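ARCHIVE CARD
SHELF: 3
SLOT: left
DATA:
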Amino acid sequence: MSKSRLYVGIDNEINGGMTAIGKTIRDAWVFGLLDESETCVGWNAAMVDVLLDKVNREWDKYGCLVSQLPTELFERHQRIHDDAFVKAQAAGWSGAFEVEDEQ
C-alpha cells in the first residue's frame, strides 16, 4: 500500500486477505485492539503502521509465539486464523507463492 492510497479493507484484499496487513488486522482482533467487525477500509499507511506497532508490542509479551498465548487468546487466535484460511482458500489462495523461493 503506497502512502497516498487508502487500504481497501481486509474483506477486499488480494489472496483472500492473506497479506502482511491482513495478518496484522487479524492479530489486532486476537488481542482485542480492534473489534472483529473492523476491516480497516479507508485507512492510510500511517494508521496501519500504528496498528502494526501495537500488535508487535502485544506479541512481544508472549515471545512472538502462539504457543505462549493464554488459553483465551490462543483459542481466539485459532478461530480467527482458521476462519481466514478457509475464506482465503475459497477465494483461490493456496499459500504456494509464499514458499516458492524455498523450493
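SLOT: right
DATA:
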Amino acid sequence: MDIEGRRQSTNIEDRRGSRAVRTGAGLSLGGVLFLVVLSLLGINPLPFLGMATKAPEVQMQQPDQPYQESAREGHLREVTAVVLADTETAWSEILPRYNVQYVPPKLVLFTDSTVSSCGGAQAAMGPFYCPADQKVYIDMSFYDQLATQFGAKGDFAQAYVIAHEVGHHVQYLMGTAEKVSAMQQRASEVQANKLSVQMELQADCFAGVWANNADQSRQLLSAGDAEEALNAASAIGDDRLQHATQGRITPDSFTHGSSQQRVTWFKRGMQTGSPDACDTFNARSL
C-alpha cells in the first residue's frame, strides 16, 4: 500500500499507555456501616440507600510519562492514520449522493483496556465501533495477532480492519444501525444473529467500496493489496474461528459471517464501488 506522503487523519485519540481505573464500586464499606447504624437506631435505611451507594465508574488514568512507541508501532500508527484519512475522503464523496453528510468518526488507539460509551474495552475483544460515541476502538496489538495467529499479513490487511469498522459508522449515519438494533430487540436469538451477520457483511462490502474508491481516485493500492484484504476477511470468518476454538461449527450462532461470505461481500464492494451493491438485507443469499 502506497502511504508515502499521504495525508494522515487528525481524528485519532491516542490513549496508549493510559489505563482504566475503577473509581466507584457500588456500596462502599462506609456506606454499609452507615445503613447498619440507621437500622440499629430503628430508622428505615431504604430511603438512604441512594446516598450510601456510588455507581461504579471507570476513568482513564494518564501515564506519568508520554507513551514510547517502538518503530513497528510507529509504522502501524502511520498506516492507521493514512487509512482513516482516506476513508474520510472516500465517504465524504460517496455519501452525499445518498443525501447523507459524512461526519468522520474518531479512532481511539489504546493498549490492553480502555472505556467507551458502549462499556469497557479489552484488547481481547478486537477492534470495534461504538455507535453511542461514534468512535472506533483499536488496540494495535490486534494487527500482530492478525498476522501471526491468523496468517493475514500486510498493511492492507490492517487497512481492511479499519475500513470495516468505519463501515459500521457509515451504517450508523445512514440509519441502518438503529433500524437493525430495533429489529434485534424483537427477534429470536437465531434471527438476531442473522441480522448481526447481515450488518457485518454489509460493513465488509462497505470496506470494499472504500478500497475501490481509494484505488480508482487516489491509486492507494499496490500489487497484492487486494489479496491481503481478502486473506484477512477469510481469516476471521465465524466458521474458521469456531473450528479453531471449539472444534465444531454452529452456523446459527454466527454473528459475523463465514469466511466465504466475508470474502464474497468485500469483493462485491471492491468490484462495484457502489453502496447499492451492499444490500445484504434483501439479498437472495448471503
